[in-house]
Amino acid sequence: MRIYAVFVYLFLYAPLAVIALFSFSAGRSASDFHGFSLQWYATAAGNRLVIEALLNSLLVAFVSSAIATLFGTAAALMLPRVKPAFRMVFDALTYVAIMVPGIVIGISTLIALATTFNFLNPLIAGDAPGAPPLGFGFGSLICAHSLFAMALVIVIVKARLSGMDRSLVEASMDLYADPWGTFRQVTLPQLMPAVIAGFLLSFTFSLDDYVIASFVAGSRVTLPIYVFASIRRGVTPEINAIGTTVMVFSLAMLVVAQVLLRRQARKPAAA
Amino acid sequence: MAEDGIDVRFDTVSKHFGDVAAVDGISFALRRGSFHSFLGPSGCGKTTSLRLIAGFEQPSAGTVEIAGANMVGIPAYRRPVNMVFQHYALFPHMDVAGNVGYGLRQRKPRPEKSALDRRVAEALELVRLPHLAKRRIWELSGGQQQRVALARALINRPTVLLLDEPLAALDRKLRREMQIELQNLQREVGITFILVTHDQEEALSMSDTIGIMKDGKIVQMGTPEELYDAPVNRYVADFVGESNFWSGEVAASDAGGAAIRLGSGMTLRAAYSRLGAPLKVGETGVIAVRPEVIGLYPPGAAPRDLDCQANVQILNRIYLGDHSEFSVRAEGLGDLLVRLPKAVETAGLEPGAAAVIGWRGNQALALSET
């Protein structure tokens, strides 16, 4: 049993370890290790295309997770107040959004947006001649990413909300705090760990996503798109260095999110 | 403030949840500065009544007045009442002082920090926890959390303090201490307290008045003595203290009492409860006899002036320190409970022995079933 487990983990993590290891190689090949060096990190950091792709990725990740966190939290807060039938449909659709493969989301978003653009662009050209036509780029990327990430945030915040003691809200109302005061001083602080965890998970998802981005990014290049395009020209240790950086960054955020979610699960029991 | 000294008034208040009437057309008025309890089993409407006063629920019909002002449509955060919740509902993300000062911080304009700190210190002093201001909530014991919840409510000097089974989560000894403390606190601050409980002992020991509730209605409201000595029906007699009950057909009725024929053919006479309604001949009535008014004697030793006597066999005896409880079986009466104080001679009254029970007719009550 233990041996079996060891092989499973080896199979899962050995390739990642190899990539991380070779990112420190001094050689030019991604398959031979020639002594320790940080030169490929320097090369990646000096590559204008890499930096531009990274900045694009960070922008999309930040904006889309901010939107997802805002609207996802709002949706989770609203859900207990709507009719049960509507809530069931909404819940089901939320889980569907999480379970549907990225490629399906990518294609369907592409088709939906392309159709919308084809419908709107002639109208825009007619109403406001000279205005730039709608097209794929940051807008469509942020749109697709925030829609998916919103489902994540809804699920996480909803779990926290259902674990929250309803009498805390009543206690606050009883102590003269109006609904907004209660939200600001009691509900939001209670939800905060889940909100932050939701934001971090959304950010990680957006930063790492290739599949959806490849459909809706238009001419914009995000980091995963850049990496994927470079691989076709052969894997260099520079790609390994980029991959390792993204991996460490994502892992760090996942750990923070996990710690936040666990702490909040433990706290009510201790209180 | 109301001119008539009434702090809380319900006028034919109902609250429906779907088809269920949690509170069903109740009316009452509570005197300012009194300690009032709502007593009843779960689902009787006592908690809903409390929530109607707090403003967490709005009545489906009728009016709720606090200090003379109509509260219908007024939300909880604009009512001059504060509540101590069953599980305290202290804010876990604030320390003790943060919790206690919460109500004052919502005031507009917000009090200055020095005034706020002083009031918080006073409130903690009142509940004897001045040294715990900086503690986190989860570091406190159940009894301490209880006191913080009290301080958090009382600091606002509400017209009415609402207590929703506040002692249910405490162990027996601590509960007894808190009961006394709550009573003292109520006298000290002079605020109207309204307690909801299913524990009759708790209600009896603390309250000036008690409302016994059943199925959304108030069955009887009065002082603990009234409820105990003059219950209006079997439900109240059963809920407040303990009684032996026999039901049967009313055979005779006059101004003072009624005779009821039991299923066994035996007829028992009893006086009417001071606050109960007289029974009609032919309807079903109940005889209620408190276990402490029944005498238990060795054969031949019973006094001659007892109105009701029966030969019994002693089934069991439970020694309870200051008194003993006997369960006995009487011919025609079935099993009943007798309670004798320690001072009474109990030699020869052992399980298995034959004995005689008896009581005076004016100590038994003839009641209606409902």
TrEMBL record, chain A:
PROSITE patterns xref list: ABC_TM1
Superkingdom of origin: Bacteria
ABC transmembrane type-1 domain location: 54-257
Major location category of this protein: membrane
Keyword annotations: Cell membrane, Membrane, Transmembrane, Transmembrane helix, Transport
Pfam family, one: BPD_transp_1
Compartmental location: Cell membrane
UniProt KW Cell inner membrane keyword: no
Residues annotated as transmembrane: 53-80, 92-114, 134-157, 241-261
Membrane association type: Multi-pass membrane protein
UniProt entry tagged with the keyword DNA-binding: no
Database matches in InterPro entries: Bact_Polyamine_Transport, MetI-like, MetI-like_sf
UniProt record similarity statement: Belongs to the binding-protein-dependent transport system permease family. CysTW subfamily.
Protein's name in the database: ABC transporter permease
Species whose genome carries this gene: Dongia sedimenti
TrEMBL record, chain B:
Superkingdom of origin organism: Bacteria
InterPro entries associated with the record: AAA+_ATPase, ABC_SmlMolc_Importer, ABC_transporter-like_ATP-bd, ABC_transporter-like_CS, Mo/tungstate-bd_C_term_dom, P-loop_NTPase, Transp-assoc_OB_typ2
Protein name, as recorded: ABC transporter ATP-binding protein
Keyword Disulfide bond in annotation: no
MF terms in GO: ATP binding
Keyword list, A-Z: ATP-binding, Nucleotide-binding, Transport
Pfam family, one: ABC_tran
Residue span, ABC transporter domain: 8-240
UniProt keyword ATP-binding, yes or no: yes
SUPFAM superfamilies: MOP-like (SSF50331), P-loop containing nucleoside triphosphate hydrolases (SSF52540)
SMART domains documented for this protein: AAA
Signal peptide: none
